UniProtKB/TrEMBL annotation:
Keyword Transmembrane helix: yes
TM region(s), chain numbering: 16-37, 57-75, 82-103, 109-130
Taxonomic source organism: Streptodolium elevatio
Name used for this protein in its record: DUF4383 domain-containing protein
Keywords of this entry: Membrane, Transmembrane, Transmembrane helix
C-alpha cells in the first residue's frame, strides 16, 4: 500500500500542500522573471541584486523552472504536491549547503550570496513543513488518512465500533462473528 493512494483528493490537507507550493512557486517565478528582465550575465560568479537576493541568468532560469514546477504541483494538488514540496524542500536545503561552500569561488556559477544561502535554508524548511503537515508526527488524529494507513488494524477496529454505534448496538461494540 502506498500513502498517496490513501488520501482523498478533496481532503482538507490538500489545501495546505497546495498553498505552500503555490506561494513559493509564485515568488520564485517573479524572482526569476525580474532577474531576466535586468539582462544580467548568465553565469556571473558574483551575481546582481534582485529583490534582496543575488542572481545571475542561470539562477533566474532555474528559479523560473522550479517556480513553474511548484505551481503545476499546486494546480494538480493531492498527495503529489505534498511529496513535491518535501522533495524540492530537501533540494533547497542541499543547495544551501553546497552554495555556502562555493561563495567567493569561481565555481559559484549561480551567483549565490549569503542572502541566497539563508533563503535556500528558509524556503527548504518551509516547503518541507508544508509537505509534511498532517503527514508525519507522533500525535496524528485517528481520522487522519496517514495514521489510518500506518495503523490499519486499529483503524479497522475503530471503524467497526463506529458502525456498531451508528446501528445502535450497546457500547458501540461490533457484533461477534
Amino acid at each position: 500500500m502506498q500513502l498517496h493512494d490513501e488520501l482523498p483528493v478533496d481532503h482538507r490537507l490538500a489545501r495546505v500542500y497546495r498553498f505552500g507550493a503555490g506561494a513559493v512557486g509564485l515568488f520564485l517565478l517573479v524572482f526569476g522573471i525580474l532577474g531576466l528582465v535586468d539582462r544580467i550575465e548568465f553565469f556571473g560568479a558574483t551575481g546582481e541584486d534582485v529583490a534582496g537576493l543575488s542572481t545571475n541568468g542561470a539562477l533566474s532560469v532555474l528559479s523560473i523552472a522550479i517556480g513553474l514546477v511548484l505551481l503545476a504541483g499546486a494546480f494538480r494538488g493531492g498527495n503529489f504536491v505534498s511529496t513535491l514540496n518535501i522533495v524540492i524542500g530537501i533540494g533547497f536545503l542541499l543547495s544551501g549547503f553546497v552554495n555556502l561552500a562555493l561563495i567567493g569561488k569561481d565555481a559559484n556559477v549561480l551567483g549565490f550570496g549569503m542572502s541566497n544561502v539563508i533563503f535556500s535554508f528558509v524556503v527548504g524548511l518551509v516547503l518541507m513543513t508544508f509537505g509534511m503537515y498532517g503527514r508525519v508526527g507522533s500525535a496524528l488524529p485517528h481520522d487522519n488518512p496517514y495514521w489510518r494507513a500506518r495503523n490499519t488494524h486499529q483503524a479497522a477496529l475503530e471503524e467497526a465500533a463506529r458502525r456498531a454505534k451508528a446501528r445502535g448496538l450497546p457500547g458501540g461494540r461490533a457484533p461477534a462473528h
